[in-house]
Amino acid sequence: MRAIVTLFRLLDRGDEPLVDCDTLRLLGGCDPDDLVRSGVLVPAEPSMSLHASCGQCNVHDVVRVPRPTGVEFYEACPFDGADLVEKERLRQWSIDGRAIAELFASAMPDGGPAETLLPGVAWRIGEVQVGGESFPIVLTTTRSASRLADRSGASRMILIGDELPGEGFAGRLSITEAFAIRSKRVQSRPERFAQVLPLSSVPLGNAFYRKGQMWVVRFEGQETYLENNVGPLYIARLLATPHRAVPAVTLLASRIGIDERQLIGSSGELTDEAAVEECRGRYHELMGEIDEAKANHDLGWLEKLQSEQDQLALHFASVLGKGGKPREVGDIKKVSQSVSVGIKRTLDVLDTELKPLADHLRAHLSRGVCPVYSPPADIDWLV
């Protein structure tokens, strides 16, 4: 499924772009038969040219030679002569843009069929309801976006695609921003759709998210904006995972953009060294998996990985210190105090800008070694 994004971009080459085995190999060796079963690729006539590997030509023609046992194919090079080519290598396919649109439409919350707006290049794949109003979600190629701008209702469309114009539409997102794409499935990220809308279009629900160089904050019908400081980053992470403790070391490391291992120590002398090494190995694996989940915008997978990472970080933070020495209470306090100060400064600003939210967070967001946001009831946040 991860080749879907690149295949959709190829639609900008023409109305019926073709891909061959060499192209699919460059896309990571994806299985063409899987893509054929999904309808994204449609078998086409065999290619009669190949990418040259002789170092002197760009393309080699393929010659069809009838034999008593069947047809053989030869790659002809004016410098190296002709070589027999396996028929499998000549397979090629056309890209069905509508099948890609149907795939993304099925991943939307309403799961309805895709509606063709411009044949072969633009489809309505769903809608998002914001503030009692409907905003169509439109998957489109770059070259067709200008044609959409002339349509009635274009100013309410949220475009999904690659290198799209922003003027004349309600918002735009890349495919990987709008969808989490895994090897076997695609999942929509509907919360992203509301975030790209003009602020006047977003309902007065609870929100705490970054937009450009500011933070949009709403609570109980009131709205304000915060500067992009460290405190909002910590608070947004906690609001996104209510009732789950997040170690201060995790918050601090993610904020300053360093490896958490620099904060929690790199080695240690514990009673069971094998267990420490096993945990450390898993921690290294998690860092790679988290990067992959972020790249694919897979929130569900990312949350599970971060939960496991938080538990390991808390374990290491409690037993390991700089240079592999047992961590002292003072070491943990330095990290937790830094995070606590950042949160407190934001709460102090909210005392003036949005007092009800400041009071709510002081009552239900605890600080310390493992900050946690524990509201008395389920509260929806756009974060």
Could you describe the 3D structure shown?
It is elongated, with a radius of gyration of 27 Å. 38% of the residues lie in helices and 24% in strands. Strand 4 and strand 5 form a beta hairpin. Helix 8 (230-240) packs across helix 13 and helix 13 (329-353) packs antiparallel against helix 14. The protein is built from 14 helices and 19 strands. Residues 256-272 and 321-330 have low confidence and may be disordered. It is α+β, with helices and mostly antiparallel strands and 383 residues long.
Can you give keywords for this protein?
four-stranded antiparallel beta sheet; elongated; alpha+beta; 383 residues; five-stranded mixed beta sheet; 14 helices
Whole-number mean pLDDT: 77
> What share of residues is helical?
25-40%
User: What amount of the residues lies in strands?
Assistant: 15-25%
What class, by secondary structure content? Answer: alpha+beta
Poorly predicted regions: 256-272, 321-330
Principal-axis shape: elongated
Number of helices: 14
Total strand count, please? 19
Strand order of the largest sheet: 8-9-10-11-12
Q: Over all CA atoms, what is the radius of gyration? A: 27 Å
Tell me the distance between the termini.
27 Å
Major β-sheet annotation? 5 strands, mixed
Brief account:
By secondary structure, the chain is α+β, with helices and mostly antiparallel strands. It has helices at residues 4-9, 21-26, 32-37, 97-106, 145-148, 175-178, 190-195, 230-240, 248-256, 261-264, 273-295, 299-319, 329-353, 355-364, and strands spanning 18-20, 41-43, 49-51, 59-67, 70-77, 81-85, 92-95, 115-118, 122-130, 133-140, 158-161, 171-174, 179-181, 186-188, 207-211, 214-219, 222-227, 365-366, 372-373. The protein has a 5-stranded mixed β-sheet. Strands 3-4-5-6 form a 4-stranded antiparallel β-sheet, with no helix packed on it. It has a 3-stranded antiparallel β-sheet with strand order 1-7-2.
